[in-house]
Amino acid sequence: MSDPDAPFAELPAALVEEVLSQTASVGERLLESFQQAKDSRKGWRQTLVKKGYIIKESTLGCPSSPTTCATDGSYAMERLLTVDLAAAAAVAMEGLTPPSEQRHWDQPRHSTIIYAEPHQEKTVNVLRAAMIGEELILACKAPHDLVMLDCTLTLPIIYFNQGISAAKEHPELHISGYFVNHVSDYLDAYRTILMSKRSDKQFIGNPKYSTRREIGEEMGWEGTHDDRGLLTLVLEAGELTKPMSLQQTPGQTWHLGTNSLPEDIKKEAKSLADDIVAQLENVYVFYYKPHDWLPALRIESAQDVAKNKHRLAIVVQGVKYQCATPSMLEPYPLYLADRTVKALVRALPAFRHVTTQRIAEQYGGDIGEVFFAMHGYRSEGGR
Predict the structure, then answer these.
(1) Residue 372's pLDDT is what?
(2) CA diameter of the chain
(3) DSSP state of 59
(4) DSSP string covering 94-113
(5) Fewer CB under 10 Å: which end of the chain, C or N?
(6) What does the DSSP 8-state code read for residue 60?
(7) CB 71 within 8 A of CB 91
(8) Rounded to the nearest 10 degrees, what angle do helices 155-169 and 174-195 cross at?
(9) Among 242, 208, 210, which residue's Cα sits nearest to residue 227?
């Protein structure tokens, strides 16, 4: 294990010196970029105010504090000598509860998947699609006023396309069968979130990282900063931008291919996919800065939420109530869910060791063969 207090201990001295010598020029370029943003901040804000793109949260009204939760997921792959150990988990974590709240949410609030698979590069594509599908199902089951997803609302369609394609190519994978058997449930949950028809339940996507520049392009701003970076400098505490339609990359059209699915579920999946593609045209985005100590948060929601003043107020109130301390740069339930699922990647080697021990106890041959077969050569994971 590397010592976190000595990050250069295992690197050649010449390599360290060369990298350090290059940091000066990197710092100069970053400083220039920061200075340009600082000099342009006042003009950017004046443009937004003049065009009516800045909204004070106080103008939305003040509904009672909503109950909240967040869902997140992660996956991990252990590449062993003989097989791949594939695991995924999705969790839903409740936020800080308003004092008057008494409703009860039955356990479990998580979902797990783990399989031993033959070596295939695209196993991870199916595993990731199943992971996000489980997240969406948990989100739909949550009995809360505001449900937060730790991703953009367009991410599931990308993962589902990859998962459906990989499942067709590798039907021998256990995870392929699991994903195909549940794909209709996943698509139904995704459609429900994109439509957000229930006025007592708001779904939002809150990605940490995004390269989108809807507002920057609308205002004609030049520069390399994305909208979130710029609006962190421009917005004051308690302000949000006017919700606007999510822009697609020029020439891009949404598509969810279901033709490769089995005949018994293809018709239902096709109908759900058509609804999903149509609803993606109605995704809206806005940025909100709850407090001075927070960066601007990118929030995506259905049109019925973003264009309804009362429902938008519930979202804003819920997000602000969950941003209670400067030690977390995101709403509390998202922070908690993220920390929980990231533990899966760290824990997978321990699961492998337990499995190895159980096999060794019952194996009739040379026990060394077991340890060779279950030796991990490479690990990968993500969310």
Answers:
(1) 41
(2) 78
(3) G
(4) E-PPPTT-----PSP-EEEE
(5) N
(6) G
(7) yes
(8) 160
(9) 210
* H or E segment to which residue 371 belongs: helix 367-373
- Report the SS3 class of residue 207: coil
- Count CB neighbours of 364 within 10 A: 5
pLDDT per position as a tens digit, 158-171? 999 999 999 898 89
Q: How far is Cα 257 from Cα 270, in angstroms, rounded to an integer?
A: 8
Query: Picking from 90-99, 117-126, 320-329, 337-346, which range would have the lowest pLDDT averaged per residue?
Result: 337-346
Strands 84-94 and 244-245: unpaired
Long-range Cβ contact pairs of 11-17 (< 8 A, separation 24 or more): none
Q: What is the pTM of this model?
A: 0.84
Write the pLDDT tens digit of every residue in 214-234.
Answer: 777 777 776 667 778 788 888
pLDDT in tens, 121-132: 888 899 999 999
Nearest CA among 113, 108, 89 for reference residue 179 = 113
Residue 249 has pLDDT above 80, yes or no: no
Which two structure tokens, joined as six digits, stand for 183?
A: 């794909």
Residue 186 and residue 167 in contact, taking contact as beta carbons nearer than 8 Å = no
Q: What's the distance, Cα to Cα, between the start and end of the chain in Å?
A: 24
- C-alpha–C-alpha distance, residues 90 and 69, integer Å: 13
Distance set, CA 360 to CA 114, 115, 131, 355 (Å): 20, 19, 30, 9
The CA-CA-CA angle for residues 131, 136, 142, to 5°, reads 125
Tokens of 151: 């991703």
Within 10 angstroms of residue 130's Cβ, the number of other Cβ atoms is 29
Q: How far apart are CA 161 and CA 153, in angstroms?
A: 14
